[in-house]
Amino acid sequence: MTTYIATDNRANLLGCLWMIASMATFAIEDALVKAASSTLPVGQILIIFGFGGAFVFAGILRWNKAPLFIIDVVSRPMRIRVFFEIVGRLFYVLAISLIPLSAATVILQASPLVVVAGAALIFGEKVGWRRWGAIFIGLVGVIIIIQPGTDGFSVLSILAIVGMVGFAGRDLASRAAPAKLSTSLLGLYGFLSVVVAGGFFSIWEAAPFVLPTLQVSVYIIGAVLAGVAAYFCLMRAMRIGEVSAVTPFRYTRLLFGVTLGLAFFDEKLSSSMLIGSGMIVLSGMFIFWRGKVAKPAS
Fold first, then answer.
1. CB–CB of 98/51 below 8 Å?
2. For the segment 139-188, what is each residue's pLDDT rounded down to a tens digit?
3. Residues 6 or more apart in contact with residue 187 via CB below 8 angstroms
4. Is-contact 180 69, C-beta < 8 A?
């Protein structure tokens, strides 16, 4: 029994470390995309970024002699997943290009709260009044951050909220996706969805193609590599450790994102952002803790 517990604890520790690594590299990806957005149109960034990530995942699939397409790719859950991936990627990249990286990162942390609420409403999972209360408090935290009806309100903050809802929808659709779809296959079509998002926005934006400088090219390549690495670290974390043990460490992305915003983009933290982010993080931590220890009906 002692050996089993020790092994289990070690797996959870490794899972937590993989999750922290994932969130750190996701934050680096965001920072590099934001840096590139000062020169390149958002649509062009999405297209280049999407093709880059798709190329990496296609290479991995071929290396493993796995097919690039199976019929489950066009299943209903996958079509829904692609739609939400497009919405999430497009609006979140727009958000980090137009508002402070720290603000967009903090709002994104409400995504797990939306996933829990969606799982209850769509999949019929048991969520008692305590967790519903925590979800409400976390969403109030988002409202405090964006400050609607005040001088500090920016309508551009809505972009981050839509992106957050898009990512939550993607995660919910992933739970219903056929089990035959591997991590690499999901990654391939996830990045191809980014290309579609970029194509749609480029048509709407009608911005001319800009030849990237060497520096901006490094930003984009770095963002692609960081995105792929973050995706694999995330999958590794979820497969090694218990979900309830590793999931709370998603919130370390907030720390990394805020730090990068302060260090490289000269951003400032307001009291409303600190209060709102605290409410979001504490609500999320309570939900995962409650989900682990509470009875199914609670």
1. no
2. 888 888 887 765 556 788 899 999 999 988 888 887 777 878 888 888 89
3. 53, 57, 228, 231
4. no
